[in-house]
Design brief:
Elements: E1 4-8, H1 13-24, E2 30-33, H2 44-49, E3 58-61, E4 64-67, H3 69-80, H4 88-118, H5 124-145, H6 158-164, H7 171-174, H8 178-181, H9 183-193, H10 201-204
Parallel strand pairs: 1-2
Antiparallel strand pairs: 1-3, 3-4
Helix pairs in contact: 1-3, 4-5, 4-6, 5-9
Length: about 220
């Protein structure tokens, strides 16, 4: 069996995507907490030793460091035969929603939530701009989930794992009450949380937490 080490920090939804995928596939990993808030990923030493792209997460597989969450999710789906696509049409739909998430939903929510909750001072106009974009993206997702149990149909895939990661964090961090504003998303998050073995990020990813200034 592969030996996994996951370089992460608890607030990283992208780290959570890999931690959750491994857990749902019945695998364990050695957690390697990373001082993202302290700036370690911006140092030349860390980038030389861990990830030249300067990003978290990093997944070590039998000592080989691998990066970029989306291709890693796809690789794990193929390896374990879980949360992937069964047909060519499903594969296209999976990739369509996975890439949309990376470019739109995760891309904006990760930055908005970090600025809103984990920076002591932020620009209200920048937050307003990000919130307006997120309202649009969340509306798209909510509309889709009104007639689809999961991203591409009746079964969850890595597209769902990717899209739900940043949305499942506490409301005080991202500032949305999905039960009130996006009921289809709220119900879908509940379906994801009902998967056998599911755990939230702050249970799967231990370690020192960053200060939440939005509380």
């Amino acid at each position: 069996m592969p030996l996994y080490r996951l370089h992460y920090f608890p607030e990283s939804g992208n780290s959570y995507k890999l931690a959750l995928m491994l857990t749902l596939c019945g695998e364990t990993f050695e957690p390697v907490w990373t001082d993202f808030g302290g700036g370690v990923t911006r140092t030349a030493e860390w980038r030389k030793a861990v990830n030249e792209m300067g990003e978290i997460p990093v997944l070590e597989v039998d000592g080989v460091k691998m990066t970029q969450t989306a291709p890693l999710l796809l690789k794990l789906a193929e390896q374990y035969g879980r949360f992937g696509a069964a047909t060519e049409d499903e594969k296209f739909e999976l990739l369509r929603w996975l890439f949309w998430d990376n470019h739109k939903l995760t891309g904006y929510m990760a930055t908005y939530r970090f600025m809103r909750a984990f920076t002591e001072r932020n620009d209200p106009q920048v937050l307003k701009h990000f919130r307006r974009r997120l309202d649009d993206f969340l509306g798209i997702l909510d509309g889709h989930l009104q007639h689809s149990a999961f991203a591409i149909g009746a079964k969850p895939t890595v597209a769902d794992i990717s899209m739900m990661a940043y949305l499942h964090y506490p409301d005080d961090e991202h500032g949305f009450d999905f039960a009130a504003s996006h009921p289809a998303i709220h119900a879908w998050l509940g379906r994801m949380a009902a998967l056998p073995g599911w755990k939230p990020a702050y249970e799967l990813l231990p370690g020192k937490r960053m200060t939440n200034y939005a509380k």
